[in-house]
Amino acid sequence: MIRLLLLLPFIGLMIVPFYNVREPYLFGFPFFYWYQLAWVPLTSLLTFIVYRSVRHAD
Q1: pLDDT for residue 5
Q2: Residue 46, helix vs strand vs coil
Q3: Predicted local confidence at residue 57, as pLDDT
Q4: Quick one: DSSP state of residue 26?
Q5: Angle at 28 between CA 24 and CA 7, to 5 degrees
Q6: What tens digit of pLDDT does each residue of 15-47 get?
Q7: Is the pLDDT of residue 56 over 80?
Q8: CA distances (Å), origin 12, targets 6, 32, 46, 52, 57
Q9: Separation between Cα atoms, residue 41 and residue 32, nearest integer Å
Q10: What is the rounded CA–CA span in Å between residue 24 and residue 50?
Q11: Does residue 46 contact residue 4 with C-beta atoms inside 8 Å?
Q12: How confident is the model at residue 58 (pLDDT cuts 50, 70, 90)?
């Protein structure tokens, strides 16, 4: 069940019309760019959580 967390980045990045906007800006970057860049560490964190959970469950 915890492995379903790995679907979050996939779903969050596949719905392009949701984040295909310019505003709000963050440090001069349009929302389109910083939304995608925010998923990089978030995906790493989710992968780590799933890895630790699955590794200890076996």
Answers
A1: 94
A2: helix
A3: 61
A4: B
A5: 55
A6: 999 999 999 999 999 999 999 999 999 999 999
A7: no
A8: 11, 12, 13, 22, 27
A9: 16
A10: 31
A11: no
A12: low
Query: Is 0.85 surpassed by the pTM of this model?
Result: no
Q: Which long-range contacts (CB under 8 A, 24 or more apart) does 12-16 make?
A: 12/39, 13/39
40, containing H or E segment: helix 31-57
- Answer for the pair 20, 32: CB distance below 8 angstroms, yes or no: yes
Tokens 């505003």 belong to which residue?
A: 23
Cis omega before residue 9 (within 30°)?
Answer: no
Cα separation, 54 vs 38, in Å, equals 25
Which residues 6+ apart lie within 8 Å of 38 measured at CB? none
Q: Hey, what long-range contacts does 32-37 have (CB within 8 A, 24 or more apart)?
A: none
